[in-house]
Amino acid sequence: MNNILTNEEIQQLRAETRGTAKTIHFNNAGSSLPPDVVVDTITDYLHYEALNGGYETEYTYREELENTYSLIARLINSRKDEVAVVENASIGWWLAFNGIDFKPGDEIITCEMEYVSNLIGLLHAQKTWGVEFKVIPNDKNGYFPSDQFEAAIGPKTKLIAVTHIPSSAGGMIPVIEIGKIARKHNILYLLDACQSAGHIPLDVQQIGCDMMAVTGRKYLRAPRGTGFLYVRKEIQDKLKLFFMDGFTTQWVTETDFKPRDDARRFEVYEKSRALTLGVGKAVEYALNIGVDRIWQRIQYLAGLLREKLNVIAGITVHDFGDQLCGIVTFSVEGMTAADVKNKLAEKHINISVAKAVSTLIYMNKNHLGDIARSSVHYYNTEEEIEILCGALREIIN
Which GO MF terms does the UniProt record name (predicted)? Predict the structure, then answer.
């Protein structure tokens, strides 16, 4: 398969996404436009359920539902029994994080890009269990200082928790390099890959993480209210369980119970089967295209957008680092990010506001408030980038 998505393929992919005919969508880091097949998969299931009953429909679709786990395992190169389907990345991250047996004085090492929900988790652990956390900042060029990161590890370091691709910046964290450090020192490694899945190839074996939380709605193009959690088989028994029901257990007696012997112990029984089927179809769609090809296309479009924004007077692009992703952040002189977003929305162009609180440590360090965020996906086009830049020129003038 050719690594470059051809114009014919892009047009076909756009034809398979109803939303591209109506909207120029540059808010893929918030929630991508889903492929038609994902929407149809969900609605077909719900229609069948309405006619035949919930339990009966689940039984009819049992093989397709089970295949969702196999597809996710293929996407991240894990075992199927290391995958739990959950409602979102925050649920997955908190299940993993709070499953760790923290003791007073334990240390966590994180990065300046950590997402707000995760930062709240770190602060909660500090207040509740007396756990300390260290933040390793990027250098002045936006590069991640691996030597400083490793030097920060001490005898009480219990966990490394980092976000691969931040919510409010175009930079990335070298997760494979961090994984090597984690394995070298035998430290648990929790990765937030919320913006990564469907955006960049992910291989948990290569990354070396013990746990990874992912959402469905962003670059995977799955429905909202979907996500998954990867937990390496060897550590599943080491994590405490917080939600338990008859599904999460392997057997129950009147006096005891035993958890399941796979990652589905971190799920609960009652959740949307239609959405589970939808996330599976979205993963299958990405696999059929090839995530390496998706990543190549995203890098090209993001680079083109940054190049064009950089020459528009009054616009400052904020992304820096040795590797940049599909998120492009910028400010327009004299305008709030919300105003820029709203004015573009009037022209049927979707962008988002990267809120300062979303990556508070990074934003405070770089003296940034809320900024505009445009995030490209493979179904975006060069023409849409031209339209966006033209609209920004009009707004500025």
Answer: transaminase activity
